[in-house]
Design brief:
About 50% of the residues lie in helices and about 15% in strands. The protein is of the alpha+beta class and about 375 residues long. The strands form two sheets. A four-stranded mixed beta sheet has the order 1-4-5-8. Strands 2-3-7-6 form a four-stranded antiparallel beta sheet, with no helix packed on it. The longest helix has about 40 residues, at about 235-270. It is globular and about 80 Å long. It starts with 7 loop residues before the first helix and ends with a helix. The model has no long low-confidence stretch (mean pLDDT about 95). The chain binds coenzyme a persulfide.
Length: about 375
């Protein structure tokens, strides 16, 4: 049985997110993009937290909103339609490896770092290194066991919230000779002695979110901060990415593409004769293509989110959805920019910004080449 109706609860979250996004985020989006973005929008993050829109997937008993993946995607589409970078920051607090692999004791201990009602912290997924991007298994950060502690060393780069997270999920190897089976995941609080954060990247898009480097020099953490078991780090990273590719890329891409379409419609209505416009097909046919892309990407996001919520293996769909939704977002934003012309470089019709944001969707949470690799392997495996 297939039903596309939202439950009353889902519709309530969608409406709440839409209202907040349009009233509180949209007016700030252009300024956040244009500023030097040294100031992280903490005031907005705290507001999102107060509204229950920051720790979406975290169980309510730990201070989160307890949403499933599908409902989170509805919320994220709304936030992304107002500002994709802010939506992206939110997604990292919602489905961190602590959600996926943390024990109840670890969740009880660490979620207060990100869910505190007044001073919520941000979470970070720290996998990438200067010499290990697409080939995530080549990560060379090390961990060694000393008594009842682990000692971590190494450098991580291109880490979202890397310059300021309260909690990092760090992937490091206990045994380089064991390859992927040596990779292990650890929970590292941001204030751990020996952890030094570098400057954030001055990047082309998603300028309202921060991406940075951090280094670990003999960072000591209790053995109880081991996430999963020794050697399970690679699997935990892949499981996390399977979800993030839907919520951080798919749902963000749908919101971005929707905003690009809506802004283009607004522009055409503002600038064209209302009676002539419907017959000006050079202007209106692109709208049909743009809307088709939004609808198709949304269906893929909803289906994959449903699969994740219902524990249906979703690796292939996650890969397909990631590249389809992000390719669609870039295509739609570029078409919108072409339609709006020079007006598309302004804050009123910010298509140029959406093009820059959309390009990054094709790169993060695994490049679209990696997504095609994951999906095609799944197709061949049947
Ligand atoms: N869930 C659980 N386990 C998974 C999994 C998943 N979604 N995906 C892979 N695994 C397991 C495999 O089953 C395999 O385990 P076994 O050895 O026990 O069979 C193991 O992980 C290795 O998988 P695989 O053989 O596919 O690894 P490869 O090195 O060939 O490929 C890719 C891994 C390239 C897909 C991986 O490195 C990757 O996703 N890279 C991109 C990293 C990325 O997205 N970085 C962005 C970080 S955040 S911006």
């Amino acid at each position: 049985m297939i039903a596309f109706e939202l439950t009353p609860e889902q519709a309530r979250w969608q409406e709440k997110a839409r209202d907040f996004a349009q009233e509180r985020i949209a007016p700030l989006s252009w300024g956040l993009d244009r500023s030097s973005h040294e100031e992280f929008p903490w005031a907005l993050i705290r507001e999102l937290n107060r509204e229950g829109l920051l720790n979406l997937g975290v169980p309510t008993e730990y201070g989160g909103s307890g949403l499933d993946v599908l409902t989170s995607c509805l919320v994220i589409e709304e936030l992304a339609a107002a500002d994709p970078g802010i939506a992206f920051t939110v997604t990292l607090n919602s489905y961190v490896p602590l959600m996926i692999a943390g024990t109840p004791e670890q969740q009880e201990k660490f979620f207060p770092l990100t869910c505190d009602k007044e001073t919520p912290g941000l979470a970070s997924f720290a996998l990438t290194e200067p010499n290990a991007g697409s080939d995530a298994g080549a990560a060379s950060a090390t961990a060694r066991r000393e008594g009842d502690q682990y000692v971590l060393n190494g450098e991580k780069c291109f880490i979202s919230n890397g310059d300021q997270a309260a909690l990092y999920a760090v992937f490091a190897t206990l045994d380089r000779s064991a390859g992927l089976k040596g990779m292990t995941a650890f929970l590292v609080p941001g204030d751990s002695p020996g952890l030094s954060r570098g400057k954030f990247e001055d990047k082309m898009g998603f300028r309202s979110s921060h991406t940075g480097v951090f280094a670990m020099q003999d960072v000591r953490i209790p053995a109880s901060n081991l996430l999963g078991k020794e050697g399970q780090g690679f699997k935990i990273a892949m499981q996390t990415l399977e979800v993030l590719r839907i919520i951080s890329c798919g749902a963000v891409g749908v919101g971005l593409a929707r905003a690009a379409t809506e802004k283009s419609v607004e522009f055409l209505k503002d600038h064209c004769h209302p009676k002539k416009l419907p017959n000006q097909q050079a202007l209106t046919f692109p709208l049909a293509d743009m809307q088709a892309a939004v609808e198709a990407a949304r269906l893929m996001v909803w289906k994959t989110a449903w699969m994740l919520d219902n524990k249906v293996p979703a690796g292939t769909m996650s890969g397909l959805t990631k590249f389809f939704a992000s390719d669609a977002a870039l295509e739609v934003a570029q078409r919108g920019l072409q339609l709006t012309g020079p007006h598309g470089r302004t804050g009123r019709y910010p298509l140029e910004k959406l093009v820059r944001d959309a390009k990054l969707l094709q790169i993060y949470e695994g490049t679209n080449q990696i997504s095609r690799l994951v999906a095609s392997r799944g197709i061949l495996a049947g």
